[in-house]
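User: Just a sanity check before I run the rest of the batch. Below are the structure tokens for the first item. I only need the designed sequence back.
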């Protein structure tokens, strides 16, 4: 298998590490080229459409700015309201190929705890309230939830895994 050069539309150490973890698990030989990108959506996307667009914008921008890359990869975590009006958290990952083809994958959607529902309903920034949730109590489930919401690892790795598998196995996904 040849080395795949991936222009990753972020300089976040966490996101870079999460992507490396997924690529290593799958067995892909890769080089990551971290590219500072602008999602061109709000810092805290609160609709699914805005989240998808953020991942697409990052993927397109990263491949455009990295001519030696094979593909661009954009990641965007966002929120949206479910049928009951409660916020769920999720992630979209998009691969942009040089010829303009796009592939996207979405993680599972996770209903946020009550405290975070209030944060989003009051148009406040989620990241500023993670510490407050950590301090709420030291129960292992509370601590796990706070870490998951802060670092977003399960959402990012699931979306990245989905799009990477689709990219490398495109012929398995073409339907007649």
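Assistant: Here's the designed sequence for the first item:
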């Amino acid at each position: 298998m040849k080395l795949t050069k991936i222009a990753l539309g972020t300089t976040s150490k966490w996101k870079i590490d999460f992507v490396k973890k997924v690529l290593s698990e799958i067995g892909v030989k890769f080089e990551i080229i971290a590219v500072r990108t602008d999602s061109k959506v709000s810092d805290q996307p609160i609709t699914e459409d805005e989240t998808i667009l953020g991942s697409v914008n990052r993927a397109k921008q990263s491949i455009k700015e990295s001519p030696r890359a094979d593909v661009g990869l954009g990641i965007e975590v966002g929120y949206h309201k479910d049928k009951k009006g409660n916020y769920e958290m999720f992630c979209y990952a998009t691969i942009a190929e040089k010829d303009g083809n796009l592939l996207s994958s979405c993680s599972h959607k996770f209903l946020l705890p009550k405290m975070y529902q209030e944060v989003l309903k009051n148009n406040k920034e989620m990241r500023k309230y993670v510490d407050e949730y950590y301090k709420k109590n030291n129960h292992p489930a509370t601590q796990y939830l706070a870490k998951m919401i802060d670092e977003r690892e399960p959402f990012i790795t699931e979306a990245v895994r989905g799009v990477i598998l689709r990219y490398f196995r495109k012929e398995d996904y073409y339907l007649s």
